[in-house]
Structure formats: C-alpha cells, structure tokens
C-alpha cells in the first residue's frame, strides 16, 4: 500500500462567533453566571489544509466570564461551529 501522511502538533484557532461585543450574552453576575450559549469555530492551520476541526468534546473547553472560569457543561457541533453551554 502506498500512502502519504503527516503527523504534526499545532495550536488550533478559536474564533468566537457569539456572543460578541455587538451581540452580547447577558449572564447576570460574572461571579455566578446564568445559563448562556457560546458559538465558536475551531480551525486547523493552513499547512494542514485549513478547515473546521471536529471531534472535540465539551469537557475540553473552559469558558471565561469576567474573572470566573467554568467548564462547558454540554456541547455539540452545529454547522461547523461548536455550541457550548457553560456549567453554572
């Protein structure tokens, strides 16, 4: 069998789709945020054939609200973007 393959370490690019400065999520108190959703795109670098990176699980993300950090409670890929619900 003749095959070409590459192994590489890379840092993916994370682009927050929502919430943004113009489309805000109102989460209440930053120290005790209420439920909200985060949409983000995770892409690989150009040298690996840039595109959406799939296969990540919700527990592989941390969400920052103000000075508080929380894990993502649930998540799934919808239209090539991860939709996460941070734990409250």
Key terms:
mainly beta
Can you tell me about this structure?
This protein is an all-beta fold. It has one domain. It has no helices and five strands. A five-stranded antiparallel sheet has the order 1-2-5-4-3, with no helix packed on it. 8% of the residues are buried.
Layout: helices, strands, pairs:
Layout: E1 13-18, E2 38-43, E3 62-65, E4 68-78, E5 81-86
Antiparallel strand pairs: 1-2, 2-5, 3-4, 4-5
Summary?
The protein has 88 residues and is mostly beta strands.
Class by alpha and beta content = mainly beta
Provide mean pLDDT, rounded.
78
Beginning-to-end CA distance, first to last residue: 51 Å
Beta strand %: 35-45%
For the largest beta-sheet, the strand count, sense and barrel status come to: 5 strands, antiparallel
Supply the number of structural domains. 1
Roughly how many Å is the radius of gyration?
16 Å
Count, helices: 0
Please trace the helix and strand order, writing H or E for each element. Answer: EEEEE
């Amino acid at each position: 069998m003749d095959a070409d393959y590459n192994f590489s370490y890379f840092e993916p690019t994370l682009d927050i789709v929502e919430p943004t400065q113009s489309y805000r999520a109102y989460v209440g108190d930053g120290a005790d945020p209420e439920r909200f959703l985060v949409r983000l795109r995770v892409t690989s670098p150009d040298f690996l054939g840039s595109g959406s990176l799939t296969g990540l699980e919700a527990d592989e993300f941390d969400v920052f609200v103000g000075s508080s950090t929380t894990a993502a409670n649930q998540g799934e890929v919808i239209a090539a973007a991860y939709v996460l619900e941070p734990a409250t």
